[in-house]
Amino acid sequence: MNIKIVEKSFDPWGEIQSFQNSSPEMRGKYGATSIFVGTMRDFNDGDEVKGMMLEHYSGMTEKKLADIITAAMQKWSIIDVLVVHRIGDVFPDDAIVLVAVWSSHRGDAFDTSRYIMEALKSTVPFWKKELLVSNNERWVDKNTDGYKV
Amino acid sequence: MNIKIVEKSFDPWGEIQSFQNSSPEMRGKYGATSIFVGTMRDFNDGDEVKGMMLEHYSGMTEKKLADIITAAMQKWSIIDVLVVHRIGDVFPDDAIVLVAVWSSHRGDAFDTSRYIMEALKSTVPFWKKELLVSNNERWVDKNTDGYKV
Amino acid sequence: MSIKVRYFASLKESFGRSEEELVFTKTMSVADIWKQVSKDKDIADNILAAVNMDYVQFDYLVKDADEVAFFPPVTGG
Amino acid sequence: MSIKVRYFASLKESFGRSEEELVFTKTMSVADIWKQVSKDKDIADNILAAVNMDYVQFDYLVKDADEVAFFPPVTGG
Fold first, then answer.
1. Which tens digit of pLDDT belongs to each residue from A81-95?
2. Do C10 and B127 touch (CB under 8 A)?
3. A39 touches chain D (CB under 8 A)
4. How far apart are CA A56 and CA C29, in angstroms?
5. What is the pTM of this model?
6. Closest by alpha carbon to A100, among B52, A10, C48?
7. Which CATH architecture has domain D2-71?
8. Residue in B closest to A149 by C-alpha
9. Structural domains of chain B, with CATH
10. Angle between helices B106-123 and B60-75 (to 10 degrees)
């Protein structure tokens, strides 16, 4: 597994390509890749948002992500996992999070990527403070449950 | 929606990036992108596979894919969908299928990408013939159900 | 009335042809067409049929100029 | 015994500090530590606690050199 916490904007597609290039032993072995990218929107809860500050608990963040990925790899048949998460000052259209899962079969890949995202959203210590176009600042209260659509 | 049937190998990450670049109206509007990539493996059902021929029913393929995406967009809240599928001679490590879904929220994106993949696998007229390392050829019998992991 | 019949994948190989034109005068269902083109072979459980690129049941009645297709389970993705 | 207490996000702002050292002699639970650092404020329903970077319940008993953290619901991803 590879877990990266990054302070600068990142290119999710380049991250995936680099990971695959640096994992030649996976070539021909995986049939399924399930990817989730979370991107900053320019509106939230009815307000226009012009920026965001992403705080995290360094150390616990990496530890919880590793725990989550380890639990997923015990539950499903997975070849490898890459998670990249942004911290610091973020702007609309910036990628915030990338979860990529490689496996032999699609069911495992889909289940795992969604599981990791839900666990990340509910237990990994990141916090978002939004800067509105009105120049008001506000902390995001809490994440919603992604299984309840 | 964008549906592409391609005869040459394609780069899924480049396809996603191009699609986003050509859709400036989506910028800042989507918070969630769920992607599935199916890739050719070098083994299947206990045999080493060195190549594959992907046949399709031209016309019906595009029609069924459009029907599936339309049904998904009626069921979930989706901004846009890209599907790319390979035909012709395919080799291990080649991407076979790309499904990318952009939406405001992650639940819709995850549900839609998986729905499209399952519907594609069970109803869109593509057929795979495998060329084994032993030089035997065989048609793939049928696809499995991706919800039963 | 005249229809086109198409075959794909393993069915195309076992039939030894990819398509043919059929001309007939009476009302025909997809099952009737299958009997004629397969020389009375039973319809295998897993054979799928489409008319004008939409899936149909075998009791579907074809019209003039329809395109009928028979093929095995799909295996894309 | 000596522990470090850390605060994050909105809690860091309302406490006006990001961390502090606490020294005490008797056995302390996470709830006892909360009372002391918050000046007897009730524990809000949604406040989370971690010890040495793992989530704990408020009845968890801390040990010397532990790192205790309090923070609001997480909102990453």
1. 999 999 999 999 999
2. yes
3. no
4. 66
5. 0.96
6. A10
7. Roll (3.10)
8. B107
9. 2-10+30-136 (3.90.1170.40)
10. 150
